[in-house]
Amino acid sequence: MTSTLIEGLRSVSLDVPDLAHAEAFYTQTWNLTVAGRRGAALYLRGAGHDAYLLALHAGRRDAGMRHVTLRARSEAALDTIAAAAGKAGGAVVQPLGVLDDPAGGVGLTIRDAHGRRFQIVHGDARHEGDAPRDRPVRLAHVVLNSSTPDATRRFIEEVFDFRLIDLTAMIAFMNCNRDHHTIGVGLSDNDALNHIAFFMPDGDSLMRGGGRLKDAGYPVQWGPGRHGPGNNLFNYFIDPFGVVIEYTAEVQQVDDSYVPRGPEAWKWPAGRVDQWGLSDPPTDALKAAQRRIHFSFS
């Protein structure tokens, strides 16, 4: 189940009200490293091959989401995506050009009919990777809430050639590569960012990361546990600005033999919120944060 256009999720770009505080949290606690700076922007990388995973921009009073960055399989795919965006009710908001950030390459930015922005890049820099112990390796997925989930799902299918891999009562899981899902569409009454998931090298790293966050005053908001769709381990947290972030590991790998399932297949017994049945439900603070961060257009 592979997109002909998109290789995978590269990075996410956020606005933050306090760049110094964001740098301290995401380097000392979340365990990313500085990849570079451009003016009032900070770029942070993980232990894997991507030049950076998170771009943080200063200047706004509240946190917001600028765009999700996807990596195209070819430069020709960028033109295909630009044309498809218009046909699907979206638009190109930044035309194809050379990118001035630590990853470089070429790219363009599009939006859907409800303002979600996606940057698509090709030819960006990659690294050999570092020793991954207890550090996020890459981004695993991003979940975007949608008040019009069918339309959002169609846009992702028609513009990026993603496929619906599983559907629960709360999320449509969209697939583009061997990872079970790369984008989730939250079935919601709002269009906020639900969460950003960072892939950890193993379960021990995920758990030690949870301990590190707890020691720093950021308690687990949901987890530890193992999800149904994707079969992945999880620990959820809220960053200093209200952004929901997840450590995940052991993401299910799929191929064309995987049979998609609907909501009836993903119901837990009473009192359970995951496969194990050990975790408490998501906290009220987490649920509120999953409605708070919206796309910004600075």
Q: How many strands appear in the DSSP assignment?
A: 16
Q: What does the radius of gyration come to?
A: 18 Å
What is the CATH fold-level name of the largest domain? 2,3-Dihydroxybiphenyl 1,2-Dioxygenase, domain 1
Strand order, biggest sheet? 2-3-4-1-5-8-7-6
Shape: globular
Tell me, what is the CATH class of the largest domain? Answer: Alpha Beta
Distance between the termini: 35 Å
Please tell me the total number of domains: 2
The proportion of strand residues reads 25-35%
Catalogue the unreliable spans: none
Q: What's the total helix number? A: 5
H/E element order: EHEEEEHEEEEHEEEEHEEEH
Mean pLDDT: 96
Described by strand count, sense and barrel closure, the largest sheet is:
8 strands, mixed
CATH H-level homologous superfamily name of the largest domain = 2,3-Dihydroxybiphenyl 1,2-Dioxygenase, domain 1
The assigned structural class equals alpha+beta
CATH architecture of the largest domain: Roll
What report would you give on this structure?
There is one protein chain. The chain contains 5 helices and 16 strands. The protein has helices at residues 19-29, 75-87, 149-160, 203-215, 284-289; strands at residues 6-15, 33-38, 41-45, 54-57, 64-72, 91-98, 106-111, 117-122, 138-146, 163-167, 171-175, 183-187, 193-199, 222-226, 233-238, 244-249. The chain is globular, with a radius of gyration of 18 Å. An 8-stranded mixed sheet has the order 2-3-4-1-5-8-7-6. It is α+β, with helices and mostly antiparallel strands. It has 2 domains: 6-122, 2,3-Dihydroxybiphenyl 1,2-Dioxygenase, domain 1, CATH 3.10.180; 138-289, 2,3-Dihydroxybiphenyl 1,2-Dioxygenase, domain 1 (Roll).
